Amino acid sequence: MARKTETIIITDDGRDKDKIFVLTEMPASQAEEWAAKALLALAHSDVDIGDNTEGLAGIARLGLKALAKMKFEDLKPLMEEMMTCVRFQPDPKNVLLTRPLVETDIEEIATRLRLRAELFTLHTGFSMAGNKSTSTSEGQPAPSSRTRMSPRQSVR
């Protein structure tokens, strides 16, 4: 079975409005290593992780308060690796054309935070934002829209 992907369209007002990002789940081996690095960083930050052996799902249960205790030098490589799962779709009409992010693709901090939250949900099935609806009563996309997609071909 192919890795999960989601297309995120930024609909909030701002410099990233209407930009399209494609998120792809890490391979299992990479996700396992990422979770191990995150758990070790948490453990070295005096966070009580108990007997947590649940990988990414366990990190989700620890919550953001625990992550706030991590040292930035431990957190930064995890943040960088997370963003390698994001590709930019420069042409809304060409869904087959995506590319790795470059610094100017994301201009709002809120967009980066949103993409990180969506990546976390994609990998764990646990929403950091709760169960927010992604559509309005008129059937139009809410301020943020998310579309689950099947695997695609990408231009590198």
Protein described:
The chain folds into two domains: 11-24 and 85-156, no CATH class; 27-80, no CATH class. The chain is built from four helices and five strands. It has helices spanning 28-43, 55-67, 72-83, 109-124; strands at 5-10, 20-24, 86-89, 99-100, 144-149. Strands 4-3-2-1-5 form a five-stranded antiparallel beta sheet, covered by helices on one side. The radius of gyration is 16 Å and the shape is globular.
List keywords for this structure.
156 residues; alpha+beta; 2 domains; 5-stranded antiparallel β-sheet; 5 strands; 37% helix; globular; disordered C terminus
Low-confidence stretches: 130-145, 147-156
Oligomer: single chain
Strand order of the main beta sheet, please? Answer: 4-3-2-1-5
Count of strand segments: 5
**Average pLDDT over all residues:** 77
Q: How many domains make up the 3D coordinates?
A: 2
Terminal CA distance reads 22 Å
Largest sheet, if any? 5 strands, antiparallel
Dominant shape: globular
Derived structural class = alpha+beta
The radius of gyration is 16 Å
Strand fraction: 5-15%
Query: Residue share in helices?
Result: 25-40%
Number of helices: 4
The run of helices and strands is EEHHHEEHE
